[in-house]
Amino acid sequence: MRGTSPQQTDAKPSLLQRYRLRYSWLDHLVRAGQSYTANHGDHYAAAITFFSVLSLVPLLMIAFAAAGFVLADDPQLFHQLQDQIHSAAPAGLGATLDQVVEGAIRSRRGVGIVGLVGALYSGLGWMGNLREALTAQWTGEQPSESDGFLRTKVFDLLALFGLGLALMASFALTGIGTAFASVVLNALGLGQIPGARLVLVALAVAASVAGMWLVFLWVIARLPREPVPLRSATRAAWLGAVGFEVLKQAFAIYLDSVTNSPTGQLFGPVIGLMVFAYFVSRFLLFVTAWAAVVTKNLPQVDLASAEAGASVPEVVVGSRPDVPR
Asked: How far is 209 from 237, CA to CA, in rounded Å?
């Protein structure tokens, strides 16, 4: 009879392994983290954050050009702006700022065109990195480039417009839900009750979560370059919507705490925006990894056998995170 090796008799499952065997949700969470790490989630999140910040410059240029067109068509508004500049600027600097504003108005077309081209470039780069990151979390592999460069960019552009429509639908749902709740409370005569404000805030948060669920569902299920199961994406979208609301509230608290000083007012929002974009990117990819890990494919392990010393299978988190080693 073949003897039993010391590793087989003395091996005991760790505390985390015991809890993973006992609680399926914890096992699912750990496997999602393993899959996220193995599929370079942090690297993809950094690339997404870079293009997110890069997109701000052309967007500001577009906004600058739009303001130039508005001021050029409304002389009264332009003079009001000049009066505000002269009242707020230090002595002797008002005339210089007037020249800057007038130059911006004259160059509004060029600034707008450069902004649009830059926004298109950075937006396609952002969408391309996002789709590749989502595909990697679903499949564990780099997406193939058999479609060709031009075809890929066209689909990325369509996906960018689709995401914009999903965001518009989310904001519309949030606004309609909040307005409807306010109208109902006022119609019932409850608008002036102290507790009604809390109810309105809770309904506004619920409407925001429902709206963001649409966005996360679109991102997780439709942006990957490979077909993915809609049912898993639906469940993960709820987790993403709730988590995003928590991140948004934390970011609001951060901005409120760092904008109390002049230095914080200057650099705090920029740094906070970069950190917020990075954490949202990481969270989105983790939620996608959570959706890709299917708990029912994990082999059933008897807890009593594991406590007696049987080895606990680990999960391969490479190309197929749900296949036991």
From this structure: 10
Contact present, 38 and 293 (Cβ < 8 Å): no
* Angstrom distance (rounded) from CA 296 to CA 231: 14
In a domain, 89, yes or no: yes
Span 280-315, pLDDT tens digits: 999 999 999 999 886 334 444 444 444 444 444 444
Identify whether residues 97 and 186 lie together within a single domain.
no
Beta-carbon contacts of residue 286 (< 8 Å; ≥ 6 apart): 32, 33, 36, 41
Judgement on whether residues 212 and 110 belong to the same structural domain of the protein:
no
CA dihedral 237, 51, 59, 86 (to 10 degrees): 120
Rounded Cα distance between 212 and 238, Å, is 8
Q: What is the DSSP string of 226-266?
A: S---HHHHHHHHHHHHHHHHHHHHHHHHHHHHHTTSHHHHH
pLDDT tens sequence across 108-128:
888 888 888 988 888 888 898
Task: Give how far Cα 1 sits from Cα of 4, 5, 119, Å.
Answer: 9, 12, 72
CB 214 within 8 A of CB 177: no
In a domain, 16, yes or no: no
Q: How many domains does the chain have?
A: 2
The amino acid present at 302, given as its one-letter code, is: D
- CA angle 245–250–255, rounded 5-degree value: 125
Structural domain span for residue 239? 162-301
Q: What share of the chain is helix, strand, coil (3-state, %, to 5)?
A: 80, 0, 20
Q: Are 72 and 166 part of one and the same domain? A: no
Whole-structure pTM value: 0.72
